[in-house]
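Q: Give me a backbone?
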Amino acid sequence: MQMVDLKTQYEKIKEEVNAGIQEVLDTSAFIQGPAVKRFQENLERYLDVKHVIPCANGTDALQIAMMALDLQPGDEVITASFTYVATAEVLALLGLKPVLVEVYLDDFTLNVEAVEAAIGPKTKAIVPVHLFGQGARMPQLMEVARKHKLFVIEDTAQAIGAKYKMNDNGWKALGTIGDIGCTSFFPSKNLGCYGDGGALYTNNDELAGRIRMIANHGQKVKYHHEVIGVNSRLDTLQAAILDVKLKHLDEYAEARNKAANYYDKHLAGIPGLTTPVRNANSTHVFHQYTLKIANGKRDALKDFLGKWEIPTMVYYPLPLHHQNAFKNEAYPIGSMPITEKLVEEVLSLPMHTELSESELELVVGKIREFFSQN
C-alpha cells in the first residue's frame, strides 16, 4: 500500500499520456510548445478564470504573485503557521515579513478573526491556504481584505478543482476568488505532472500581463526587460501530461471522495479519533485525509499501522512559528494553542485515486484494532 499510487494511475491513462509525450518529441518544441498554450486554455475553461499563467513550480507561483503585486521589503503578509514552508518561505526571500496566525481547529484553514487582529499599518496582503483539499473561509476573508485594502493571494496547491460558495455570487473555483491564485503540479498533487510545475490564476488583465512578464525574465518583448523578473516556465512535456490528466480531474476527485466517505463511515464513533470536517460552503477534493488523534496516541497509532505496512504521514510535525527559520519573539511557545495542538494530533491516511476497497478495509480494520487495545 502507498500514500499515493501514481504508477497505477498512469497505467490507466498510459496511451493518452504517451501520445501526448510523443507529440512533443515529434515537434521538439520543448519550451513554450503548443501543448503549454493548449493546457493553459483548457485549465482557464475548467476553472472559469480569465488568465492561467503556467510556471515552473508552486513555490515560484507564490513568489511571482508577490512580485506582481509590487510588495516591497518590510511589507507584512499574513498567513497560517499551520502550512507547508513554501507559503512563508517566498515572503522571507523577498524581504517581506511573514505574519503567522492561527487556523481553525475543525478544518485547519486560516482563522478570520486572527487575521483581522494581526493587521497593522504595514500589512499589505493575506495568503489563505486551502489546506488538504478544502477551502478557507473566502467570503469573510475577502470582506476583511476589502475593508483594509489588502491583496488576497490564494495558495491552492492542495485544492485544485474545489469550489467555495460565495454568498450570492454562487460557487467559484478556489484560486479564482482573490487577486491571484497559485497552484502546484508536483506529482503527488491532485493534478500532478511527472516532474515539477505550477501556475498562477487571475481575472485581472493588468495583473496577468505583469505576471507573464515577471515569469519571463521581466520582458514583454525579447531582450527588452521592463522589470526584474525570474525564469519560470512549465516545460512542454509536463504541459502535455497535465492536459491529459486535467480531463480526468473530476473523476479523480470523485474517487478520492469515495475513499473519504468509506473512511468516514467506518471510523465513526471511535473515542479520541476525529475524522475530517466537511465545510458546507466548500467542496472537498481530499488531497489528504487527515485525522485528529487525541490523548497523545497519535505516534503510537502511526507506529502500529507501520508494522502492518500501512503508510501514514504527519502534515505538519512542526508549525512555521517553531521552525528555526521563522522563530520570532512575537511567537513564544503557547502563542498559537490550536496550531500547537494540531501538530501533536494530526495523522494523514493513504489517499489517492487508486485505493481499493480491500486496502481501505485493512486501514480501518487496523485502526479499530488499535483503539480496541488502547
Summary: The two ends are 24 Å apart (CA to CA). DSSP finds 13 helices and 14 strands in the chain.
